[in-house]
Amino acid sequence: MRISENWLRTFVDSPLASRELADALTMSGLEVEQIDPVAPPFDKVVVAEVREVRKHPGADRLTVCRVSTGGALLEVVCGAPNARAGIRVPLAQPGARLPAATIAQAMVRGVESNGMLCSASELGLSADASGLLILPDDAPLGADLRGYLDLNDQLFTIRPTPNRGDCLSVLGVAREVAAVAGGALTYADAAVVPAALSDRIEIVLEDEVGCSRYCGRIVRGVNARAPTPRWMSQRLERSGVRSISAIVDITNYVMFELGQPMHAFDLSRIEGGIRVRRGRSGERIKLLNEQEVALGADLLVIADHGKPIALAGIMGGFDSAVTPDTGDILLESAFFDPAVIAGRSRQLGFDSESSYRFERGVDFAATVHALERATRLVVEICGGRPGPVCEATADVPPRLPVRLRRERAQRLLGIELSGQQIADILRRLGFAYDTRDDGYWVTPPSYRFDLAMETDLIEEVARIHGYDRIPVSPPTAPAAMLPASEARVSAAALRARMVARDYQEIISFSFVDRQWETDFYGNSDPVALANPIAANLNVMRSGLIASLVDCLRLNLSRQQERVRLFEVGCGFARAGSGYEQMNWLGGLAYGDAVREQWGAVARKVDFYDVKSDVEALLFPRIARFEAAGHPALHPGRSAKVSLEGAPVGWLGELHPKLIQGYNLPFAPIICELNLDVLSGLDPIRYREFSRQPLVRRDLSVEVAESVGAQTLLDALKKAAPVIVSEVTLFDVYRGKGIDSDKKSVAFRVVLHDTNKTLTDAEVEAAMGQLLRVLQEQFVATLRK
After folding, report:
1. Is 348 helix (H, G, I), strand (E, B) or coil?
2. N or C end of the chain: smaller count of CB under 10 Å?
């Protein structure tokens, strides 16, 4: 939320300078993210009026303007296409320093120019460089432009926490300033506007839980074409809202000023009175953003006797909106239950300033106050005759007193506080309270929905007292380090192994797009979110593959050609009538196998590169890789990873349809492993290095093409004598010299005895035993 500092200081004139004020608010819990000037520095720019324009004698695209700043006429050479007599524009006088230039008196094609007439772009006010910045006709001649346009203002970007809906307005922030930094609080003029006619509108609350207070007021004979005052449009623009029309601007202005969302209906388009009710099946409404919405009982609507005319607390209807031809309006100001509004706009796929405030809670006691303020502004700017305020009320949220004990506040905060200090803080906050023997009984204001228990009030005391004034006291209690099991591999150790393999860790949302679940997991029934933070993040993910691919796409858009990513995170799935949470470790490799260098031939990463990474991650346990299919992986280039017969995850190349669907130049290699199983792995243990020599022998056999290399390897390891310490596959050959229905498979055998040097006879016996296993079980023949 952006707030103009000058607008803020009309409510509370704090003695603190801008930076000090921002720091004080931040330390109180209302974070000021940044302070930005509304305009870059420039000087000696004044308001001037163009009195005469003539062609430049030496240039076709230039004109010579005679301008006045209240004294003698000056000649200025100008190249703007919209220069004409009678307009008032900024004049940079000789010696003026603009954001990108310094202006001097100069000869331009033989004509002396006494300064420069400026566009908004040249002053740094906007990107518009199409012509001169035209000022209002009543702009005072010779006035300093910075002062006239209030350009010495600054913008505070504030991020209130979700529980502080009361700070979503200039008044709300002003209350904080008054409490934290001092200064008297001045309220906006909202004196009662007397009724000039007796016209009333009927209001019925059919849903008293969803809406417990609704106020409306008819104003007839307004001029909807009246221009919005410059001061109002300027404040709105600095708050991030464009000026639309005077009546709409007034409702927006009151919302930003007081925190009360408002709306204006064209009275001629309302049939009968107002009904606040739930939507009905089959009803539809076209909103101001021209989106058509199907209504249901989950949506609260404002309706007349025939149709819905607005989504309550979210957005007005298109068909009942104020237009330039509107003559009579109905101003509304209401209080809606935050629980009824929360999440509805995100459900519809858009956000609005109104829903942002209503779902956090607005001041139900200020509903009429805001309506009077808006009425006064409408009458002053657009004219018209107002009727009386019409109001329908039910049970508004109760404001029950909360006890605050000085002793408990001191115990929780660890500081000494006198009764006078606490009472002073409560007064600065504007809280009504009674002093009793058992403490202070504080009645929370109607705009503070976050105050419900004693600890909430203690937090308020701490904020206003100052977190930085609470001394840091180290704990004095004895503390013992908790034991850490060395029998399990920690997630931190697994992360370190991935980093050592040249991967970088990412952290992504656990909620994803529903389409991702369909594409990457074939999951047609993912765990759906009741209140997603965005329309495209509406389900919980099953695993990490989609998140890794999305992060890859982001890196590729940033021109990163070699990407190694991993993530440790959760997946979620349905389990009977409930849900289960699984912990995963996922990795992705894309691009060149090694970084670009002169010492290695460039090649793309492949299945076996990532397979070696997985084997290193699982060491000292030996993983088994079996060809198997996965919805996200290439059907012929993927494998199921298992340990001792138990599945632990997947490894493979991304499916071609996903490469095409997600616009990837070529396939990444992806692994996804069950973190709970990995954490149960035995850690790497020390083993004494033998001083006896190793013996290495190769065993090459021909077998049928249908026999898998892994099957052969498993059989050799199972039957290997004690002196065989390692058997690895190092070659598979098909081609010349081998029958077409066969293949040659070669194994490297390492033999070793830790107590003695092996003899040739012992080695030959062991190798013969391995060969017999292959001959007897797989009809293998020794290849010469």
Report:
1. helix
2. C
The helix, strand and coil proportions of the chain, stated in percent and rounded to the nearest 5, come to: 25, 30, 45
Average pLDDT, the chain: 91
**The 274-278 sheet, strands edge to edge:** 203-205, 274-278, 300-303, 308-311, 315-316
Beta strands (DSSP E) in 576-678 are 578-590, 624-627, 633-643, 646-654, 669-674
CA-to-CA distance for 613 and 641, rounded, in angstroms? Answer: 13
pLDDT given for residue 686 in this prediction: 67
- Is the confidence at residue 644, as pLDDT, over 90? no
Read off the pTM.
Answer: 0.70
3-state secondary structure of 510: coil
Alpha-carbon distance of 321 to 266, in angstroms, equals: 6
pLDDT tens-digit map of 526-559: 999 888 888 788 899 999 999 999 999 999 999 9
Could you give the residue ranges of the DSSP H alpha helices within 574-684?
607-618, 656-661, 675-679
> Which residue in this structure is represented by tokens 């509004």?
341
Our measurement of the distance from residue 697's CA atom to the centroid of its chain's CA atoms, rounded to an integer in Å, reads 60
Which residue has better confidence, 183 or 324? 324
Residues 407-420 have pLDDT tens digits of: 999 999 989 999 99
Helices (H), 334-366: 338-341, 344-348, 353-358
C-alpha separations of 50 from 73, 129, 436 in Å: 9, 19, 71
Q: Once rounded to an integer, what is the mean pLDDT over residues 661-669?
A: 93
Res. 483: pLDDT tops 80:
no
Question: Could you tell me which of 617, 610, 681 has the C-alpha nearest to residue 646?
Answer: 681
Over the stretch 225-242, which tens digit does the pLDDT of each residue have? 999 998 999 999 999 999
Residue pair 774/780 in contact (Cβ under 8 Å)? The answer is yes
Does position 61 have pLDDT exceeding 70, yes or no? yes
**Three-class secondary structure of residue 717 per DSSP:** helix
Dist. CA 256–CA 364, nearest whole Å: 16
Of residues 784 and 274, which shows the higher confidence score? Answer: 274
The structure tokens listed for 277 are 């009710």
Strands of 474-520 (E only): list them: 504-505, 511-512
Q: Specify the amino acid at residue 459.
A: E
Does the structure show a pLDDT above 90 at 343? Answer: no
Predicted pLDDT at 332: 96
Return phi, psi of residue 523, to 5°.
Answer: -95, 105
Using CB atoms within 10 A of its CB, is residue 71 exposed (0-12), middle (13-18) or buried (19+)?
exposed
Q: d(Cα 185, Cα 175) in Å, to the nearest integer?
A: 7
Residue 566's DSSP bridge partners are 505, 587
The CA-to-CA distance between both ends of the chain, in Å, stands at 80
Residue 681: what pLDDT? 65
What are 394's strand-pairing partners?
Answer: none
The confidence band for 683, taking pLDDT boundaries of 50, 70 and 90, is: low
CA dist., res. 269 & res. 179, Å (int): 45
What is the DSSP annotation of 213-265?
EEEEEEEES--TTPPPPHHHHHHHHHTT-----HHHHHHHHHHHHHS--EEEE
Helices 170-181 and 419-428: crossing angle in degrees, nearest 10, is 160
Please tell me the distance from the alpha carbon of residue 607 to that of residue 204, in angstroms, as a whole number: 68
CA angle 374, 380, 383 (to 5 degrees): 100
